[in-house]
Design a protein that fits this description.
alpha+beta
């Protein structure tokens, strides 16, 4: 079931939950949710596609001695708003050969092999 809720309605619900009388742990949890929902409604919430320590997958192309593609795995060393650092190099999140799951990388690799 897919239910869509407007950002305004989510903010209203989060405020209500944050104001209710819960145990201290629940109160902190709901106040954190309220903070994230507020940031989202204000356009300040940023969700990055990976974190330091994750594995990213890059499709590489070799031409010598034969032409072929393969997947190279790298551990994420650093992240920023616009890019990810792996293998001591920075790459934009939208770099065409960079994938954040093995499945995405394998599907793209298969597509290139057929082309």
């Amino acid at each position: 079931m897919n239910i869509e809720i407007s950002k305004e309605r989510m903010l209203e619900m989060a405020k209500k939950l944050a104001s209710m009388d819960f145990c201290p742990e629940q109160r902190v949890f709901y106040k954190n949710i309220l903070r994230m929902v507020k940031a989202d409604t204000e356009g300040r919430l940023l969700v990055l596609p990976c974190k330091v320590g994750d594995v990213v997958y890059e499709i590489l192309e070799e031409t010598v001695p034969n032409h072929y593609f393969y997947i190279s795995e790298h551990k994420v060393q650093d992240v920023s708003v616009k890019a990810v650092k792996y293998a001591d190099e920075w790459a934009s999140y939208d770099y065409e050969n960079l994938y954040f799951t093995r499945e995405e990388a394998e599907a793209a690799l298969e597509k290139r092999r057929r082309a």
